[in-house]
Design goal:
It is a single chain. The chain is of the alpha/beta class. It is built from three helices and five strands; from the N terminus they run βββαααββ. The strands form two sheets. The protein has a three-stranded mixed sheet with strand order 2-4-3. Strands 1-5 form a two-stranded parallel ribbon. α1 crosses α3. 24% of the residues are buried.
Length: 111
């Protein structure tokens, strides 16, 4: 029996959920990036935090964070190279309540 999937903590949901390359003909081919993959990309590539810090903020193991990050990078590369739509949705996550000490989270614990 498989282990239940752990809920990953994200600071906030993405502001945009779909990206379409200019000049594409087919609207049928797309890749879905989960919200936790988006969060891993945001933390590691945009904010420049380490994989260890990313894992701590998402409340998961470092190896899990690395796997999520690798999956996200592969999906992004495929979208760019093949000119596919990117949809950001789904996953197993909860929104941060401020208790993780996230410097970008405007929420405070207990609210």
């Amino acid at each position: 029996m498989a282990r239940p999937e752990r809920v990953k903590r994200v600071c906030k949901e993405p502001g945009y959920t779909c990206f379409v390359p200019q000049g594409t003909k087919s609207k049928n081919d797309w890749i879905t990036l989960t919200v936790e993959e988006y969060e891993a990309l945001r933390l590691i590539d945009l904010e420049g935090v380490s994989r260890q810090e990313c894992a701590a903020r998402m409340d998961i193991a470092r190896t899990t964070a690395q796997g999520i990050y690798n999956s996200a990078r592969a999906k992004m590369a495929e979208c760019i190279v093949k000119g596919m739509e990117l949809h950001i949705e789904g996953g197993t996550f909860s929104i941060c309540d401020g208790s993780a000490g996230c410097p970008d989270c405007t929420r405070t614990a207990g609210i």
